[in-house]
C-alpha cells in the first residue's frame, strides 16, 4: 500500500508587511537625519573635506605615472586641496570685509532710501506697519546685523576649518588605500567599487560644471556692474560665483545686494538696469542652460536638485545648500544603487541608466 505524499507546508509569510517595512525605514531615516542635524558642526566640515578630496584625487594618477612615490602623490593631493580651501577662504574674507565697509560708507544713503521707499509704499495704499516692515531690508542696522550674522557664520566655519584640514589629510591618505580594494578582495566587490566610482565622478562633474558657469557669470556680472558704476563690482562678482553653487535659487541670493546698492547710489533706473542685466545673464545661464548640464552630469532630476537645496540646508545649515547635490548623490549610492529592486526609484530620481539595467529575477 502506497503512502500518501506528505502535505507541502505553506510558504512562510514575510515577517514584516511591506507597509511596516516602509514605516520602519522612514523612522530609521528620521533618526539618522536628526543625528546629522544635531552634529551639523562636524558633519558639514566632514562632507566638505570629502568633496575636496574627491575633486583633487585624480591628481595622484599622473603623479604616479611620472614616477612619484605614493606618499608624494598623496601629499600633492593634500596640497591641492589646501590651495582650493585657501583661495575660497581668501575670496570670502575679502568679500565680507568689503561688504561691511560698504554698509558703513552708505549708511545715510540707505536710511534715506528706506524712508523714500516707506513714503512710496504708503502712497500706493499700504498701511504704515506693513510699509515699515517692507522697508526694513534697507535699514543699515538690519544690514549690519546681517553682516554680523554672516561674520559669525564665517567664524564658525573658520573654527571648523581645522577639522576640514585634518579630514583632508586623512581622507587623501585613505583614498590611496581604497583604490587597491579590488586587488585585495577580488572581483566580488567590483559592483560596490563601481557604485562609488560613479559617485565620485558625478561629484567632480557637478563642481566642474558649476565652477565653469560660475566663472562666466561672475565675469559678465562684474564687468556689467563696473560699466554701470555700481560700487565694489569685484565683491558682487565673487558673490555671483559663490551663489552659483546653490542650485536653482543662487541667482536670487546673488542679485539682491548689488540691486539694493544700485538703488542707493543711482536710484530706481540703476537698480532696474542691474536687475535686468542679472535676469538676462544669470537666468539665461543659471536657470535655463546650466541645470540641463548639471542634470546630465549627475543624473538628477531638476525637481530633486531644487528640493535637495532646501532639505539639506534644513538638516546641516547653510553649508548644506552648497553640498546638497553631493549629499543627495551619496544617499542614492548607499540606499538605491545597491538594490536591484529600486530601479524605478533610481529612474524617478533622474538616473536614466537605471532603465537599461536588467530587472531582478524571481
Folded structure, characterized:
With 362 residues, the chain is mostly helical. It is built from 15 helices and no strands. Helix content is 79%, strand content 0%. The model has no long low-confidence stretch (mean pLDDT 76).
Q: Helical segment tally? A: 15
The string of secondary-structure elements, in order, is: HHHHHHHHHHHHHHH
Q: Which class of secondary structure composition applies to the elements?
A: mainly alpha
Shape: globular
What is the distance, rounded to the nearest whole angstrom, between the alpha carbons of the first and last residues? 39 Å
% residues in beta strands = under 5%
Strand element count: 0
Low-confidence stretches: none
Mean pLDDT: 76
Rg calc = 26 Å
- The helix content, as a percent range, equals over 70%
Q: How would you sum up the major sheet?
A: none
How are the elements arranged and paired?
Elements: H1 18-38, H2 40-56, H3 60-65, H4 70-105, H5 107-123, H6 128-135, H7 140-178, H8 181-185, H9 190-228, H10 233-243, H11 250-298, H12 302-316, H13 319-322, H14 324-336, H15 343-349
Helix pairs in contact: 2-4, 2-7, 4-7, 4-10, 5-6, 5-11, 9-10, 9-11, 9-14, 10-11, 12-14
